[in-house]
Amino acid sequence: MRGSEFAELKAFVAIVERQSFARAADHLGLSPSALSQTIRQLERRIGARLLNRTTRSVAPSTSGELLYRRVAPLFREIAVAVAEASEATGQISGTLRINTLGIAARTLIAPRLARFHQAHPDVVLDIVVDDALADIVLGRFDAGIRVGGRLEKDMVAVRLTPDLNMVAVASPDYLARRGIPQSPAELQDHACINWRLQMDGRPYRWEFQERGQPLEVAVDGPVVTNHPDIGIAAALHGLGIAYHFEKEDVGELLAQGRLIQVLADWSISRPGLFLYYPNRQHRPAALGAFIDCLLDRKPFDQAHSETHR
Q1: Is the torsion defined by CA of 214, 218, 220, 223 positive or negative?
Q2: Residues 230-283: tens digit of each pLDDT
Q3: Quick check: helix, strand or coil at residue 20?
Q4: Where are the coiled-coil regions (predicted)?
């Protein structure tokens, strides 16, 4: 295979995996026009259209899907071989693709980005914030970060945080005007900041417990959002009661008295945040370094902290 042919196939795989010419071009260090020309050359050489493009998306054609299924595993094997050779020299490099919940991106990853880059300048972090619980294998990610109860099966899991407490909160002004609910049932008489689930678009039914038994409540109010910053801001401005993970900056606001917790005896905790990745024989050194950074630890045997699901 000539070098140009290898480059064409590499470009094709990058586009399919990133579902975007722009993102693939940025990853490959090419201009979008140069990348388009490379794909046209590949299509002319093969004699078939490989990609279907619209103004908003790009996806493989039938021929493109067949080609991708055959060549993508080969490129992954090459990447593993290169990583193993690099690791033998003690150097860590390559691209690490992470699919993460927003809460983990804000509270775990963002505060450690500079430290990780300083320690491993040859590693490119490709971080996708996704609260829709995407399939990391289908999305060609190296790892994902999720709440423990929502991990995919047959994965290696690494706990990143303790369990997460859910807290119902409102501003002092709102509670002075509307009163303090004494049970989840009384939320029907209150304005609530609703949370829209990204998996299917349905509003989240607030989960509580009564004497250890689960209890769900459908709430209503002036704001519906899929982003915690909006929900917390709405509560701060007295628009209603919000229900969030305490870690979502709510703890600091509670300490400052800008928000007040209600229904504390009814609120639940959820399994903490876990990083998980496919159960493969070779784990990239970059992923191990990333895990060490998230846990603020020095490298040690993964068997001490990781479990197979």
Answers
A1: positive
A2: 999 999 999 999 999 887 678 889 999 999 999 999 999 988 999 998 876 567
A3: coil
A4: none
